[in-house]
């Protein structure tokens, strides 16, 4: 009964507010104008190409001849394409490293927030790689990781054998992941530092007075307090992992050796740019889009559920 | 006053009419032909492009030639986008072989338009469609040759003038070089190009003309004894230590060649024209220290003597969507004019497609061998390999080096891709 009354009251209050301010509707309409440019960009550069790509994925389009409808042939081809299947396995390996992508900047952010000596310097140093383009990062690590590069010279000087970091299938993908992690974790670090500033100082003080140890404080107070921030970082990082590796792959390994560093986004470029198969590439794009949409939906659902809590 | 006004009005109308007429005339004559390539900004080829532009614009008043140099590694992606959009360049540079042949649907047929230069210019086959019609004007002859460092041969106790004629000869040379602590071949296979050059140069003298034709149509398989033997040697030579470690992470262009130029390896499979060729190696190693030979075949030779693998290198095609077809075709032809080709040869060291170019003054010993072999060449198998097969071979060649696959599995997979690409 109380609940029903409260809901009714809220509706009445809202209606009264709207009547009380006749200009609010025009303000609302005016607000749409501000949204319009961004909306137009999304529609023109995202939604329309997506619809076109969906259409092309059912054709044998080669970029030159008139596209011919081939039904589900491209999708059947993808299901039997060993290169695509390998790229999916590589993608899963990449996704399995997500905890490191979140955990590493989180730990460093907490340490910086708690005032380790030189915290400001570390914050700048960690963030610096994030402003470099992936091609520049790739060029730097190409020099460091090549067989006769600096890393191997160091290993040899220490008495170890050289490793073909980028030319060996068992190390190439992990080398790429490590380089991408190095170059992007600064962004997550900043997000976490911003989130940590919202943690209640009184609660931390109370925990300290209650005798909580450092790890207990982190686990029971700090991390639950910034949980929405962590979840947001996880969504953004996941999308970045699946869509921002192209530059590094292109410069460091060209997808090799074999298929060991081919990810779906690189394969799309390969099929469209080198093999002249935009129709087939569109089908791979659609599969990647669905996978990413599914992952994002799961993550957003988890976030929403936690927000309700 | 009335008369003055009338005169002024008439004068204004006349002037307006005159300006409009001149404007229309000017807009009718002012044409810009856009040319896409990946070479016009290269300092060694600039004199050639300057000459083509100056001569063409002088012969066609009001026409401007605009060169747009695209990055080589992204060239076909960008060209594909232009073709898909049916706008952009009027004239485009393309590689002979599969890169040109897989795009002829977007190019204008040139047959009767180039009839007057067909005998003077060589290398047309690489720019011809299945019906024999030609779609681009070749400007260079390209091929694969093994360049070697004579100094390193001498240090290993080898006769620097005794080049290998058989695979056994080459194995003996590599064994001696290895014993002397010298890496036999420079190799970069990060993008798979090292493997391309290896199989194509080794297969060129192993395949008869009929087998080359069967390779082009897809009737000669990767699992055939001739090709499989080459794939097996790709693996064996790595195991025997012919190459430095890290080939899978070394770029062929230009890390491999820079390594050869620093004298770190005794041999490298290079090109005849443009880059990674005699002129470039001469500059680093001195002409008298650079030798060149034809890669011997792994299986018995199809010919009585080693023949240089070569074909039309690069050429200019006219896009079907160019609104200036006649002018664009005239420009494509002008790239093969003898005075410009002469500069192309002298400044860039390109082997010209124009047989009228005077090459008699060249002094480089390796250039003399290359130029002397032009009339006696054999086709380059990789030019007639589909892009899908080439990409798969790049991957398989790397996995053969890492031990992830075997020769049998690799050729079986390549057969599948070949059958699909050539619809067998």
Instruction: Please report the number of helical segments of chain A.
Output: 15
What fold name stands as the CATH topology of the largest domain in chain B? Answer: D-Maltodextrin-Binding Protein, domain 2
CATH architecture of the largest domain in chain B: 3-Layer(aba) Sandwich
Instruction: State the helical fraction of chain A.
Output: over 70%
Mean pLDDT of chain A: 89
Shape of chain B: globular
SSE topology:
The complex is a heterodimer of chains A (309) and B (424).
Chain A: H1 2-20, H2 24-56, H3 73-79, H4 82-96, H5 98-113, H6 119-127, H7 134-145, H8 150-157, H9 169-196, H10 201-209, H11 214-225, H12 227-243, H13 246-252, H14 264-274, H15 278-308
Helix pairs in contact in A: 2-15, 3-15, 5-6, 5-9, 5-12, 6-9, 7-9, 7-13, 9-12, 12-15, 14-15
Chain B: H1 2-29, E1 31-37, H2 46-59, E2 63-69, H3 75-85, E3 91-95, H4 98-101, E4 137-138, E5 141-149, H5 150-155, H6 167-179, E6 183-185, H7 193-204, H8 209-217, H9 225-239, H10 252-261, E7 265-271, H11 278-285, E8 290-293, E9 310-312, E10 314-318, H12 325-334, H13 338-348, H14 365-372, H15 387-402, H16 407-421
Parallel strand pairs in B: 1-2, 1-3, 6-7
Antiparallel strand pairs in B: 3-10, 4-10, 5-7, 5-8, 5-9
Could you provide a short overview of the structure?
With 309 residues, chain A is mainly α. Chain A has helices at residues 2-20, 24-56, 73-79, 82-96, 98-113, 119-127, 134-145, 150-157, 169-196, 201-209, 214-225, 227-243, 246-252, 264-274, 278-308.
Written overview of the protein:
The complex is a heterodimer of chains A (309) and B (424). Chain A has 309 residues and is mostly helical. Among the domains of chain A are: 17-56, no CATH class; 97-262, MetI-like (MetI-like fold). Helix content of chain A is 76%, strand content 0%. Chain A contains 15 helices and no strands. In chain A, helix 5 packs parallel to helix 9 (169-196), helix 6 (119-127) crosses helix 9 and helix 12 runs antiparallel to helix 15 (278-308). With 424 residues, chain B is α/β, with parallel strands linked by helices. Chain B has helices at 2-29, 46-59, 75-85, 98-101, 150-155, 167-179, 193-204, 209-217, 225-239, 252-261, 278-285, 325-334, 338-348, 365-372, 387-402, 407-421; strands spanning 31-37, 63-69, 91-95, 137-138, 141-149, 183-185, 265-271, 290-293, 310-312, 314-318. The longest helix of chain B has 28 residues, at 2-29. Chain B folds into 2 domains: 10-138 and 314-352, Periplasmic binding protein-like II (D-Maltodextrin-Binding Protein, domain 2); 143-310 and 378-421, D-Maltodextrin-Binding Protein, domain 2 (3-Layer(aba) Sandwich). In chain B, strand 1 (31-37), helix 2 and strand 2 form a beta-alpha-beta unit. A 5-stranded mixed beta sheet of chain B has the order 2-1-3-10-4. Helix content of chain B is 45%, strand content 12%. Chains A and B meet through helix 14 of A and helix 3 and helix 15 of B.
